[in-house]
Amino acid sequence: MKKFYMILAAVAAMTMSAQAQTVNLGAVEVGDFDNPTEIYNGSYFDMAPTNFYLAHTGAQMLYTADELAEMKDRDGVKINKLTFKFNNAGTWEDIVRDVKLYLQETDATEFAVVDGVKQFFEFGEPVMETEVTYELLYTMGDDEELALELTEPFALTSGKNLLVTVVCDAQEDDNCTMGSDYAPFYTSGIRGKAMVYTDNTVSFVDYALGEDFPDATASLGCGTNVELPVTKIEYSYSPSTGIEEVEVVKTGDDVYYNLMGHKFSAGNLPAGIYIHNGQKVLIK
After folding, report:
1. Which residue did the predictor score with more confidence, 23 or 184?
2. More confident residue, 230 or 23
3. pLDDT band at 138, cuts 50/70/90?
């Protein structure tokens, strides 16, 4: 009997170990990522997460818990990748950018306004830095993606809002598209949840260290009422235990079990040792 229980314990331990190593994967879309239709067609400094017309851009995008509803009630959520989609209207050169990604959770649902001026959020250390070459010359007319994959997943507390900051810097100030072919991003229709900064000489990171930050005004090359871009956020989360309800079954007074687990009724008991109502019983 002892050996039997030891086997059960080993099986249970292996099962729990397998569950601990298992993660579920999910993806939440803001807007219709797979079939986008609306392309931003206004000023280049009113488009997130970047544009390829100027050498230096910075964008802050505020995704509320309601917009990330799929993730809101799941445990152990960790963000692995963010992807944005843009339309390549016909660019005549490849574009190289140094890209930095910053993620932080927040309780804020709007950008702050001080004395009538919208404010960027402070941001800390990047969760990802990479150099990206967009081979726009060879993909003229096709939709392209700006994909940012994290080396270390970012943990997001359930119910919190997510602030995403994307900084793109050209390695040379003249590595930019022409005004008529700046590859606009697809939009989600959710306006006012993003702000952008654009400049041809100063990085958004350097701007954030200056005396003008966190003010965002048109004179500083900022767009303050920008739509969230179409976005896909890929993440992992803790698996469910698979146990939704435990049913307690009470055995009647006439139910007995032998030490092998076989069930007997009170009127049909061969001699032996039984378990009855949680007690050991000897039948002679």
Report:
1. 184
2. 230
3. low
* Residue 11 three-state SS: helix
The reply to whether 245 falls in a domain is: no
Q: At residue 152, what are phi and psi to the nearest 5 degrees?
A: -115, 120
Task: Tell me the pLDDT tens digit for each residue of 205-235.
Answer: 999 999 999 999 999 999 999 999 999 999 9
In a domain, 231, yes or no: yes
pTM, whole model, 2 decimals? 0.76
CA distance 281 to 90: 86
- The answer to whether 119 and 214 are in contact (CB under 8 A) is yes
Domain count, the chain: 2
Q: How many CA atoms lie within 13 A of 71 on its CB side?
A: 31
Same domain, 227 and 284: no
Tokens of 181: 């072919």
Domain residues for the domain of 122 are 22-237
Cα radius of gyration rounded to whole Å, the chain = 29
CA distance 11 to 92: 62
Same-domain pairing of 119 and 69 = yes
